[in-house]
UniProtKB/TrEMBL annotation:
InterPro entries: Homeodomain-like_sf, HTH-type_TetR-like_transc_reg, HTH_TetR, Tet_transcr_reg_TetR-rel_C_sf, TetR_C_16
Residue span(s) of domain HTH tetR-type: 17-77
Superkingdom of origin organism: Bacteria
Keywords carried by this UniProt record: DNA-binding
The keyword DNA-binding belongs to this UniProt entry's keyword annotation: yes
Protein name in the entry: TetR family transcriptional regulator
Source organism phylogeny: Bacteria, Bacillati, Actinomycetota, Actinomycetes, Mycobacteriales
DNA-binding region: 40-59
Keyword match Signal: no
Length: 202
């Protein structure tokens, strides 16, 4: 007689780090090529050679998959959400405060590292996708006046944010890098507000 088979272990199987890494690699490539909206979980699964259900198992939602693929430790939509309730003519300052609340927090090293990684890996489209399609996407419709200018406004705001991230936190230009955050917000807020509601080519 053969010995009885050992009873299969119950419960959730431990995560396979190789599989998770393969999914993230495929996700980074597709998000960089196609952007957030045009990248599906199914396409990422196909690129990684796994079932789509496994992608959801590891990451839950497509948004979380994106955040993990760019190694951002905080969901920017939650940071920006309170800004969406602010009167449009006051959004610039509140947006600056929200963004700097992350950059000046314990998340700063991870944000800087993610930006460096994307640029060093020749994946600048990931930064564009992150800023325009994830961080600022819900703000665009609010400032689309005259109609058709919303995307340009978002890109102008993104240029200011990306430039500040590079010059203050990566290149550490002085005296900009040491400027008190309250003073920096006072300087940046009017520019953001002008981009959001001022005249732009239509």
């Amino acid at each position: 007689m053969t010995a009885p088979r050992a009873r299969a272990r119950s419960g959730r199987r431990p995560g396979n780090q190789d599989t998770r890494a393969r999914i993230l690699t495929a996700a980074r490539k597709l998000f960089a090529q196609n952007g957030f909206d045009k990248t599906s979980v199914r396409a990422v699964a196909l690129g990684a050679g796994v079932d789509a259900a496994l992608v959801h198992h590891y990451f839950g939602t497509k948004r979380q998959l994106f955040l993990d693929s760019v190694e951002i430790p905080v969901d920017p939509t939650r940071v920006i959400a309170p800004v969406l309730d602010i009167p449009t003519d006051e959004v610039g300052r509140h947006l600056a405060e929200a963004v700097f609340s992350v950059w000046e927090s314990s998340h700063r090293p991870a944000v800087v590292a993610a930006f460096r990684s994307a640029m060093a890996g020749n994946e600048p489209n990931l930064i564009r996708t992150f800023l325009v399609e994830v961080v600022l996407r819900d703000l665009g419709p609010r400032v689309d006046q005259p109609p058709g200018t919303g995307m340009l406004r978002m890109q102008l705001v993104a240029s200011q944010m990306a430039g500040m991230l590079v010059t203050r936190y990566i290149l550490e230009f002085e005296p900009l890098a040491s400027l008190p955050i309250e003073d920096l917000i006072d300087v940046i807020a009017p520019t953001l507000q002008r981009y959001l509601t001022g005249p732009v080519p239509g």
